[in-house]
Structures are given as structure tokens and as C-alpha cells.
Amino acid sequence: MALEEYGRTVVEILGKDATAGSFAFARQGDSATLIRPAFPYFEAKISLDLSGQTIRLSYAKENPTRGDNPSDEVIQTFRFTVGPANTLEAESDSVSQPFRSDRPAELAKHITGTLFSI
């Protein structure tokens, strides 16, 4: 599965960077969990809903083990549609972080950028 391969690639890349700290990726069914205990901390879950044609990203960026005040979990939903040129398009429902693209790699970059932003 592409999601599993993506997770392994991210872990491999981060494992080569001495400043990256640890990073965990686990897949269960149609969901994947990503945890980064180092700075910038995040814990995220990405879920695929084929019937609703969406990906749901939920994440928290406050580290509860450090005594940070827990923030509200952020949830973003990306809806897939077929574009006018028969391309797969993804669009976010987020007002604060709008996203729209017909290139799947751009969605992966957007999610990664969201999680690693400070």
C-alpha cells in the first residue's frame, strides 16, 4: 500500500538525520498513526474513507509527556473528486489551511508540512 511505503520512506529519511529524533509509523486497516516525540512534537492519525471518498487527518502538536497544556485536536478532511481532465483532485475543508490540487504528491507534501510546522 502506498501509505505504508510513504511511512517507511519518512522513517528512513528521518533516521539518517541526527537532528530528527525518533519517529514512529504504524498502520492498522485503513488508518495510519504517526508520532514524533522530538521537536516539533506531533501525534497524528490519517484515516481513509473510501465510501465517503475522503482522507481525515487528525493531529495534536502539544506534547503531554512534557507537561504542555493539551491543545484541541485539529481535524482536516480532504475530499477526492474527479476533475474536468479526468484527474484525481483533493480539496481540504479547512478555512485556515486551504488546499486544492490535482497531484497526489502535493497532498502528501501539504500533510507533512502541516505536521512539521511550528
How many separate domains make up the residues?
1
Q: Assign an overall shape.
A: globular
The fraction of residues assigned to DSSP E strands is: 35-45%
Helix content: 10-25%
How many alpha or pi helices?
A: 2
Largest sheet: 7 strands, antiparallel
Can you count the beta strands? Answer: 7
Gyration radius (Cα, Å) is: 15 Å
Explain this structure.
This protein has 118 residues and is of the alpha+beta class. The chain has one domain (2-116). It has helices at 2-15, 104-116; strands at residues 24-28, 31-36, 42-49, 54-60, 74-82, 88-92, 100-101. The longest helix has 14 residues, at 2-15. It is globular, with a radius of gyration of 15 Å.
What descriptors fit this protein?
globular, 2 helices, 36% strand, alpha+beta, 118 residues, single chain, seven-stranded antiparallel beta sheet
Topology (SSEs and partners):
Elements: H1 2-15, E1 24-28, E2 31-36, E3 42-49, E4 54-60, E5 74-82, E6 88-92, E7 100-101, H2 104-116
Antiparallel strand pairs: 1-2, 2-3, 3-4, 4-5, 5-6, 6-7
Q: Outline of this structure?
A:
The chain is α+β, with helices and mostly antiparallel strands and 118 residues long. It has helices at 2-15, 104-116; strands at 24-28, 31-36, 42-49, 54-60, 74-82, 88-92, 100-101. It has one domain (2-116).
